[in-house]
From TrEMBL:
Domain Fungal lipase-type: 105-234
Record EC number: 3.1.1.73
Family: Belongs to the AB hydrolase superfamily. FaeA family.
Name the record gives this protein: feruloyl esterase
Length: 304
């Protein structure tokens, strides 16, 4: 936490060159029927913070000892692949099959270890090979690339067994950043992946952001003045994928459809971007996304 505070404090002093990018002011409400989906899939993101789930054996039923994924626990779900600690980025999470909701889930954990925080602030661009002129954030792309082959092998097997199941890629914070790039990459491999990204930082330059936006099936959530979606800064040539589902309810509130506004465009000042520079004192907004998303995270900052 102290490390993140230092990073945000330094970055907040940099100029925000927002005028370099086009903005959009297209605003719309969500259909009420979508709200249950938003509240459900974040529970898989929450489950990735529980150590029992990201070190699980094949066939393990995911659960959250802190009680923030009850719908996941009640579903007929088993983890088929778990991963953590064996890559330079400590990319963690699991691949699971949910028979109740007919879904194959690829879920990524947010920041927990020192290696995760280093991944968060590895800001240089890298060409991910997804489209002409596309550039991704080096740390986030690396976090996906080191686990990609293992996940793709698992997806190949599972989709052959479950032809009618949808593929859902989900994560919170760092997990949402990895999920965003993973979903984009998997789509280029023929997988019709649906993305649920809660509290994602910016992952792409304008060309890549537009490419992912045009792929469709993206649900990217922000909450009030959460500082994490404001990083990396616009001045560093990073923008968001569109649309943004902007949650305006306070922390620990029951969210209704009236509390979620859909904002179009890679830069839109009607949402999280318009609440100012990243402020570490607003970090409380980062953990509340329909539920306390990282409540299962262990204490401290392990050097792993």
């Amino acid at each position: 936490m102290h490390f993140l505070s230092s990073v945000v404090t330094v970055l907040s002093s940099m100029a925000l060159l927002a005028s370099s990018y086009p903005t959009s002011f297209d605003i719309r409400d969500i259909p009420t029927t979508q709200l249950d989906d938003f509240k459900f899939w974040v529970q898989y993101a929450a489950a990735t913070y529980c150590p029992n789930n990201y070190v699980a054996p094949d066939g393990y039923k995911p659960n959250c000892p802190v009680g923030n994924c009850p719908d996941v626990e009640s579903a007929d779900t088993t983890i088929k692949l778990s991963f953590s600690d064996d890559t330079i980025t400590d990319t963690a999470g699991f691949v699971a099959v949910d028979n109740t909701n007919k879904a194959i889930i690829v879920a990524f954990r947010g920041s927990y270890s020192v290696r995760n925080w280093i991944t968060d602030v590895t800001f240089p661009h890298i060409d991910p090979g997804l489209c002409e002129g596309c550039q991704a954030e080096l740390g986030f792309w690396t976090a996906w690339e080191v686990i990609r082959d293992q996940i793709q092998d698992q997806l190949k097997e599972l989709t052959s067994q479950h032809h009618d199941y949808k593929i859902v890629v989900v994560g919170h914070s760092l997990g949402a950043a990895i999920a965003s790039l993973a979903a984009a990459d998997l789509r280029t491999k023929g997988y019709d992946a649906i993305l649920y990204a809660y509290a994602a930082p910016r992952v792409a330059n304008p060309a890549l952001a537009q490419f992912i936006t045009q792929q469709g099936n993206n649900y990217r959530f922000t909450h009030l003045d959460d500082p994490v979606p404001k990083l990396p800064l616009l001045s560093m040539d990073y923008v968001h994928i569109s649309p943004e589902y902007y949650i305006t309810a306070p922390d620990n509130a029951t969210i209704t459809d009236a509390d979620v506004t859909v904002l179009e465009g890679e830069v839109n000042f009607n949402g999280n971007t318009g609440t100012g520079l990243p402020d570490v004192l607003a970090f409380h907004s980062h953990v509340w996304y329909f539920i306390h998303a990282d409540a299962c995270k262990g204490p401290g900052l392990p050097f792993r």
